[in-house]
Amino acid sequence: MPTTARICVNARSYALPREPLVVVCVDGCEPDYIGQAVASGKMPWVAQVLATGTGLLAACVVPSFTNPNNLSIVTGVPPSVHGISGNYMLDPETGKEQMMNDPRWLRAPTLLAALADHGLKVAVVTAKDKLRTLLGAGLRGICFSAEKADRCTRAEHGIDDVLASVGRPLASVYSAELSEFVLASGVWLMQHERPAVLYLSTTDYVQHKYAPGTPEANAFLAMIDCHLARLEALGCMVVLTADHGMNPKVGMDGKPQVLYLQPWFDKRLGEGEARVILPITDPYVVHHGALGSFATVYLRNPDKAAELCAALHDVVGVEAARVRADAAQSFELPADRIGDLVVVSERFHVLGTSPGRHDLHGLDRPLRSHGGISEQLVPLLINRPTPGIDAARRWRNFDAFDLALNWALPRAPVCAATSSGSADHPLAA
Amino acid sequence: MPTTARICVNARSYALPREPLVVVCVDGCEPDYIGQAVASGKMPWVAQVLATGTGLLAACVVPSFTNPNNLSIVTGVPPSVHGISGNYMLDPETGKEQMMNDPRWLRAPTLLAALADHGLKVAVVTAKDKLRTLLGAGLRGICFSAEKADRCTRAEHGIDDVLASVGRPLASVYSAELSEFVLASGVWLMQHERPAVLYLSTTDYVQHKYAPGTPEANAFLAMIDCHLARLEALGCMVVLTADHGMNPKVGMDGKPQVLYLQPWFDKRLGEGEARVILPITDPYVVHHGALGSFATVYLRNPDKAAELCAALHDVVGVEAARVRADAAQSFELPADRIGDLVVVSERFHVLGTSPGRHDLHGLDRPLRSHGGISEQLVPLLINRPTPGIDAARRWRNFDAFDLALNWALPRAPVCAATSSGSADHPLAA
């Protein structure tokens, strides 16, 4: 048996890539988007992958939000290990609410940084800039966002002049084109920089607006299919997964079906006794109004958490309500970064704080959102066969690198590395 | 307090209608069909009902199929009482599989028959003829199907010459027009026969093909909205509910995601040890290939049921597997008309017997189907306010008549009946 160069990150061992590896996180890619697009012939590359490669369904991290899941994918571990429990949090030290975009919140190294340290060329492109600093934590390589592609510098992003190189104009942060910029950048990077590992992360602007099978969704998925086919043609192993699914969140009146938690707690406990935090919150809320299916609540008197959870179970629209320890265990979350209890809403409901704190004027279509258990299933596809895996086990989206590096058969003839040193690796930078 | 004429059926007490009552069972009406259609302005009448009347979500009977639910709606009780456990069953006496369309299977009187016996004029129109005999059991009144509207006789159906009266041609059993015929017949009946109670039941041909929010679904819902508005204009109290919801049932390849149970059991137990029955089966399987999310299984050795259920829980796509007694209790089913165990599949999966026994050639679009817990939520709307109800309790679709007759405020000034005798009732036939 040939010696294979390996790397160990967060207690998981990975073989080094033997052909360029592209992992694409398609934000909000409910599996049915793929099913409907494939059925109507809009994703011929994916159809081919499902026939000759690997097509699995995987469970994402709950809360099914962007930051926790992207970080799980690139670290290979759940938030209980990497520490990113949401897009937004209550800082337990300062008592202030804040975004969770800063790498100081990250408790685990990324596989991306480790691969780069091992001498492999690594590149990362995200749609929104909010993810760039987290995904780029400790990374010596290329890392930029489509949102701020016009401001890239070699010093900070490992690349400059991106707009001219990719040959596309800067896209609006609320557009399908922002994601297309990510994918086009990936193709350009593979052509001109040939990274050993490329991580691409899109935005769910389209999925927040359009249901699976609609012409708009199908056109978006067709665009993705087209770019992934190009990456395969460039000799890459390509993995498609997602950070979370997406569901309609409206009642029969077509309006958002919102369970406002702050008044519920205020009525039971009195004002100022409970503080509701929505980890979906981020600076880009136009398309979902900060309404998602996961909330965490801090109580002045944490002893009441169990009683409140029991009462929440009877509230229409609540799928689960768990005290901190239970939530941390069942959802694999860092107990010190969630509140005294966690609430998850059902498929057609979202959770809000107070009506006045959600601006829904930007919603020009019936609300679609995510965050709950009902958005936990995501695709996990590879354009390579993976003989020997148990397809029926509970795969996670953060098994993406494991599946690709340890189980997928590379297309090219395997040239075994002669030592574990990076200089000998065929894809060393 | 005025004396109100009442009737008691299956241990539930109902006030007699004080204005004509129309209960419409919109087959396969997942609530999101209404939400999306209302949001795009296609259901102005329903939008008005939600604003000024009553809009609830209700749980249908599992198995979420047509026959058990229509019979529950018109009897006010679950299948454990009325006996109709599916569209299709294994006759425990003969050991033969057969349709469950015959009234001899019905163990409870319908409220429709009881109201007619009480002297009220009652009319029933179904889309498919399969439901007509069950819904018309013991009923002295008008009862016909759109499917066989050309063959109505006064003797059997209480009406003749339906095509000429309604002024529409006979519709194909696989068409949106079949349901439109039901609604148009309802409007004609209310104009010319003025029944005190009218029950209309459509078919889910459109819902099996088109997702909520698609142009085809919206057009169908708009047609329904239009007819219900006409019935309201004719002075009716109108209830809209459904027999079950509807979900996509395809994998990422766009093909039906089927868990074939017979080979699973044969492999574990040997051939001939288990017999899988799919209660969705009926003569009209072109649009779903007899693939639904509920199955019941008879075992030669029933002692193995618990062990098999435990094993089924680990099978991808299974939402629940319960032994007969548990299934009968939790789903309120007649224990003597289900098998030794019951299997329910998840939202994106259906259950099959053996691959060779399902003809999927008629599926011209990605499969959508029902039968499981994931299709249990349905609308329960009334164009009247219902002060005093607990909107958050677990309403059932078979509370439709209770909600309408006991809780809804009639629009017209109330003329209290002076006695409980039928002759005095303002709507006596």
Keywords:
homodimer, Alkaline Phosphatase, subunit A, 19 strands, four-stranded antiparallel β-sheet, Gyrase A, domain 2, seven-stranded mixed β-sheet, 2 domains, 429 residues, globular
Overview of this structure, please?
2 copies of one chain form a homodimer. Chain A has 429 residues and is an alpha/beta fold. Chain A has 2 domains: 8-245 and 376-412, Alkaline Phosphatase, subunit A (3-Layer(aba) Sandwich), CATH 3.40.720; 258-369, Domain 2, Phosphonoacetate Hydrolase (Gyrase A, domain 2, 2-Layer Sandwich). Helices cover 29% and strands 19% of the residues of chain A. The first copy, chain A, has helices at 31-39, 44-52, 66-75, 79-82, 111-117, 132-135, 154-157, 162-166, 176-192, 205-209, 215-233, 261-269, 305-312, 324-331, 400-407, and strands spanning 6-9, 12-15, 21-25, 54-59, 88-90, 97-99, 122-126, 142-145, 197-201, 237-241, 247-248, 258-260, 274-277, 294-299, 318-323, 341-345, 350-352, 368-369, 377-382. In chain A, helix 1 crosses helix 11 (215-233) and helix 9 (176-192) runs parallel beside helix 11. The first copy, chain A, is globular. Chain A binds chain B through residues 31-32, 34-40, 46-47, 50-51, 55, 57, 211-214, 248, 250-255, 314-316, 348, 365-366, 377, 379, 381, 392, and chain B through 31-32, 34-40, 46-47, 50-51, 55, 57, 211-214, 248, 250-255, 314-316, 348, 365-366, 377, 379, 381, 392.
The gist of it:
Chain A is of the alpha/beta class and 429 residues long. Helices cover 29% and strands 19% of the residues of chain A.
Q: How are the secondary structure elements laid out?
A:
The structure is a homodimer of 429-residue chains.
Chain A: E1 6-9, E2 12-15, E3 21-25, H1 31-39, H2 44-52, E4 54-59, H3 66-75, H4 79-82, E5 88-90, E6 97-99, H5 111-117, E7 122-126, H6 132-135, E8 142-145, H7 154-157, H8 162-166, H9 176-192, E9 197-201, H10 205-209, H11 215-233, E10 237-241, E11 247-248, E12 258-260, H12 261-269, E13 274-277, E14 294-299, H13 305-312, E15 318-323, H14 324-331, E16 341-345, E17 350-352, E18 368-369, E19 377-382, H15 400-407
Parallel strand pairs in A: 3-9, 3-10, 7-8, 7-9, 12-17
Antiparallel strand pairs in A: 1-2, 4-19, 5-6, 10-19, 11-18, 13-14, 14-16, 15-16
Helix pairs in contact in A: 1-11, 9-11
